[in-house]
Amino acid sequence: MKFDHRFVTVEASPSMRVYEADGVTVRLDFFRHMLRVAVLQPGVPLVPTWSVCPNADEVPLNGRDKLSVDGFSPETPELTEDETRLSFALDGVRFSIEKKNLRISAETDRGVLYRDRSGLAYNFAGELGRGSAHFTERFSDQRIFGLGDKCGPVNKANRRFTLAATDSMGFSAAYSDPLYKQIPFYICSHAAGSYGLYYDTYSNGTVNFGVEHDNYFEPFNSIRFDEENMVFYLILGSPMEIVRRFSAMLGSIAPVPRWAFFYTGSTMEYTDADDADARLKSFVAQCEAYGIRAGGFWMSSGYTQIGDRRCVFHWNTEKIPDPKGLAAYFDAHGMQLIPNVKPAFLTEHPLYKTIAENGWFLHDPDGTPARFPFWGGMASYLDFTNPGAYAFWKECVKRQLVEKGYRHIWNDNNEYDVPDEKVMAHDFGRPIPACRIRPLFSYLMARASREACVEMGETAPFNVSRCAIAGTQRVASTWTGDNFTSFEELRWNHKQIMTMALSGFLFFGPDIGGFAGPQPSEELFLRWLQYGVFLPRFTLHSWKPDAPSTMPWLYPDRMDAVKRLFDLREQLVPYLYAEAERCRTNHEPLLRPLFLIDPACDPESDAFLVGERILACPVFDEGATAVTVTLPHYGAWRLRGDGAPHPGGEHLTVPCRPSDLPVWFENADCRM
Fold it and tell me: What strands, in cross-sheet order, belong to the sheet with 377-381?
């Protein structure tokens, strides 16, 4: 029966169909604006979802049934069905499904919108190898957007990507893969329209948008991943509607406190220093001396050191004699400290034996803790799918951090690089190889940290997680990881940000100035700041072992220009905060590549929208003294500082030196 599976109807309702062939079950659910498809293998348990929960604040701790319809709006399309075909329409898109091999096609008045590959599009009986596979027709004019924090051009067509998350310090935003997020959601746009695909899985795999060719099939896109069952959502609409619908499908977005929109400082240098307490307090003094409004400081893991090893929840009282007093000092100066926590416990950690004896680590088949290289030693990862480990983490956050005045948490190094299929996770009583759910641990870690803060009375915790899955935005914001310092990387970081903006996250950004690599030149430093003032996360963060950290006062002779930029950021905070709240309610991105609003705009444009009213026009080229921009092809745009409106579509060149304020326009129809 290989390559010839004849599906028959076994269950039907106005908004659902179930088919079977050769032991394989395929379920179709018709929802408003989307079709859900489940391909289920016989005898294989369906892993729950922690990502999908429409119209809800959170999923149960042990996950939600992937086939649940709670929160969705079922559609009851007019169906035409016989032994060979099912036909119906959703959102004006005409669907036809061949029952031989369940080949799905969808058409608009402009032509074929979506179509499964001919021959065989799904891995029903292992014909296509191990795990799950899905092959869709590749259109010659397709543009691909999304996949989380993936590098390279905004348009991902003709690229191949790894479906995984890893710690990629010093990555190239032009080509490194994988990075820190695992979000298998993308938008495909071409002449017949746009559609979105989201695959509800946490297992590793690959995604291909034109790199792979096969002489026996027409051009195709494909996704392969290790999980044997496959559940995916085909989302209809314009690109902006697809992003909204995807975000709404994931549930509520965690609010971000207003103070977090101000500048927040960060550097490993301060907490790694022997006099960490004094160095941290010097940050407050420097900000006040220069008149820089700061909301807080990211407290890197040096405060946990025992010798040269970092031991989460341990306080090095030689570096910081009075942790409570330090938090109170920052609080008295209107700033918050956000301490770094890591989910791996080094074998030398004082708590390691206790955790191991309770069985709270990921473990080998014989039950002993699995060990991995981590920060200069060997360590074991806490298993957040074990209720005991989850409760233990919360208790540590409460007692070692929140009780001492640290009410906001930085969840770091949580990519769980666990490739060994023999390493097991508890999975709430459903043992599973940890490699099948690697990025899920990061979500559960961030959720536990947030719950601990809330249970201790913090009403608006600022919780951040480096690794993320779809749905992490319910419990944490994120950032784009440990980037590299160069002019070239500045532009590629921007493209990474525009890609990330399509994945349901609202508050995020890069390390301004670059984390790894050389110290930024004066020019690059100022260009980074000109760009960064428009991003939700306005954080300078770096690790420069042989040079001073990237702080606002890096170049004292440039402080007049720097101060103007920080003053501008302070002026923008009310707008950014209000727009973020509006976008959170409407499930819209705060940062918007121009094509999302105006299909005529180049997806690779350096210019971008910040909310509805601001068009930011950064300079990314070394030695440039002006910026050239094509305004979006709608409305009228007023150059900030110039009262004359410019019509949409106009092509302009505006002077902008490194020492200037950045170039930006306001939508003339909705003044700030």
Answer: 344-346, 377-381, 372-374
Residue with tokens 């092809």: 633
Region of poorest pLDDT, from 204-208, 215-219, 353-357: 215-219
Q: In this structure, what token pair is assigned to residue 477?
A: 């914001």
Q: With bands split at pLDDT 50, 70 and 90, how would you rate the model's confidence at 3?
A: confident
Q: Which residues lie below 8 Å from residue 620, measured CB to CB, with a gap of 6+?
A: 487, 490, 491, 494, 527, 531, 606
Contact 515, 479 (CB under 8 A): no
For residue 645, give the 3-state DSSP assignment.
strand
What's the pLDDT band for 1 if we cut at 50, 70, 90?
A: low
pTM of this prediction exceeds 0.85: yes
Pairing of the two strands 614-617 and 205-208: unpaired
pLDDT digits (tens, 9 = 90+) for 491-537: 999 999 999 999 999 999 999 999 999 999 999 999 999 999 999 99
Q: For strand 263-266 and strand 294-299, is the pairing parallel, antiparallel, or unpaired?
A: parallel
Q: Which of 90, 58, 56 is nearest to 70 (CA)?
A: 56
Give the number of C-alpha atoms closer than 13 A to the C-alpha of residue 619, restricted to the C-beta side. Answer: 26
Q: Which long-range contacts (CB under 8 A, 24 or more apart) does 115-123 make?
A: 117/217, 117/218, 117/220, 118/217, 118/218, 119/3, 119/216, 119/217, 120/3, 122/39, 122/230
